Amino acid sequence: MPRQDGCDLCAELNTFNSGAIQIAETSMAKTVKKKSAAKSVKQKPTAAKQKAAGKPTATKAAQFVERLKAHRSAEELEKIQRYFKSDEGQYGEGDEFMGVRMGQVFALAKEFIDMPPGEIVKLLESPVHEVRAGAVSIMDFQARGKKTPESRRKELFDLYIKRHDRINNWDLVDRSAPYVVGGYLSDKPRNILYKLARSKNVWERRTAIVSTYYFIRTGDVTDTFMIAEMLLHDKHDLIHKATGGWLREAGKKDRQQLLSFLDKHAVTMPRTALRYAIEHLDKKQREYYLNMKAG
Predict the structure, then answer these.
(1) Would you list the DSSP string of the chain?
(2) Which of the four, 53, 83, 216, 265, has the lowest number of CB atoms within 10 Å?
(3) Is the pTM of this model over 0.85?
(4) How is domain 188-295 classified at the CATH fold level?
């Protein structure tokens, strides 16, 4: 996936404006690796194993929050507060943090994978960022599930759109939009993405482009290029990064369409978006488009 703006989900991603999905998956992989290496620590059974053994899985929002509190760290809190821009006038103004590593949030979310939408919405209502990150992670895990029924996928999609006011930071969008929104719309009309792209809300605009990652995976890049064109002159740098990153990923599937897009827009598109979009081109091509911009 595209490189993003995070740091462990908290450090400005240095790999393709990749959406928190890649970060999330990388972070979870590290967490699993560390757990398996720590022989003295007994692993807790996964939700799937609990189900197979006939044991009830955790599904209550209050349980999730209590379990999350056990992972709080003053050191992590300091890192997160330093990274996420939550001061007055900044994009995350008013956000509260608990000080939990995102890898731990994701791992815990997986244990609560059977949480119903009625409980997930309680997590979304929380003022604490990590709790809302847990909510969208649970939504993502459910949306990815091969056995998840279409009715639940629709519930998750509807919840995401209805409570987008609580999915209000770049990592929350990137963690869930590709599968919860993009996955649901993969075989349906996508008009809502174009409506979101015209929204005054930066996170809704980001959802519009980030959701197309699901389509890119299947080789369908039409919506990515069309929405990127709509967002090309957005004033927010978090939209520039997402747009450039998703253009780059779409270009992996259709290089000629990316080059045609750059031929048309390189001169006027934001420099950040351009740099992200050309990262995987060869040196000569990168210099060509950067010189167009400079000229």
Answers:
(1) --B-S-SSSSS---SSSBHHHHHHHHHHHHHHHHHHH-TTSPPPPPHHHHHHTTPPPP--HHHHHHHHHTT--HHHHHHHHHHS--STTSTTTT-B-----HHHHHHHHHHTTT--HHHHHHHHT-SBHHHHHHHHHHHHHHHH-TT--HHHHHHHHHHHHHTGGG--SHHHHHHHIIIIIIIHHTTS--HHHHHHHT-SSHHHHHHHHHTTHHHHHTT--HHHHHHHHHHTT-S-HHHHHHHHHHHHHHHHH-HHHHHHHHHHHTTTS-HHHHHHHTTTS-HHHHHHHHHHHH-
(2) 53
(3) no
(4) Leucine-rich Repeat Variant (1.25.10)
